[in-house]
Amino acid sequence: MNHSKYIPGTDITGQLRADLNAGLDVHLPAGRFYISESVIVENYSGTVKGAGKEATIIRAAKGFKATKQPMFSPGEEVSEMFAFYWSKGDVSCEDMTLSIKGNSPCKPHNNPFYGETTTMDNAIVVAGIHEEAAGGITVTFNNLRIKGDNSRDPGSHKGKNLVYPLIATGFQGASRPVHTVIMNCEIENSGSDAIEYWDVFGGSGIIQKNNIKNCYSGIRTFSLTDPLTVLGKLTVKENIFKNLTRPERAIRNKNTWSGYSLQNNTLDGNIMADDRGELKQITKPSGRYEVDDNQSTP
User: Fold this and answer.
1) Does the structure show a pLDDT above 90 at 16?
2) CA 8 to chain centre
């Protein structure tokens, strides 16, 4: 672990980039820290860990600057507090709070999906796998608090200053599985899905005991298939959803998993329906699970 360089009350953008690009694990002590630009890292394998979500708080500095994202075209920028691309091994983010405050936390930038915006597009994203990750990778998000704000800015997204808090995806890079563990996270005020897990090559995951409130929608998962793809398995259990703009989108799935288990999730205090078969077999009662095979982004 790398402990020594992080001083509470300071902008740690440059230090994080240097340590993560050097392949170091990072341990942030208790205190408040600031990030002023997207921290984008390629080919990483390791851990970013705080001293607890009550103790280690990372805030997006006012006027946060979006940067060119390696997967998009020139002129397109994305604001991301942490972004890990084409990882060579497991990636874990744990035990801290990410805070995005204000109507327009980021400088205006041209997001490739929804144009000119002032939002924080992603809090943490892990996308793509390096060829060296022969057995795939595991992405762990544990004991995180990610908190956006309501926003009246025209550049906000559905009235929120944060779009996607947590994303783990295997759509880019080598044909390897992305496994995921997303547990004990608190997510508040996102303008789209609070948690997204997209797999193509047979990954498995568990999304458990997360608390999602005041968001546009909840958890969205993909397991896309073709003749060469092995279907993955996923369990979504004991998650709590409160005050979603689209409660029928508390949990929704794109296409099919070989095994998909929904257990003891609650929406506005009510137990949701359980299912241990393919999600496509579920009908769409209001306030329960939405089956969504439309590939368009909301």
Assistant:
1) yes
2) 25
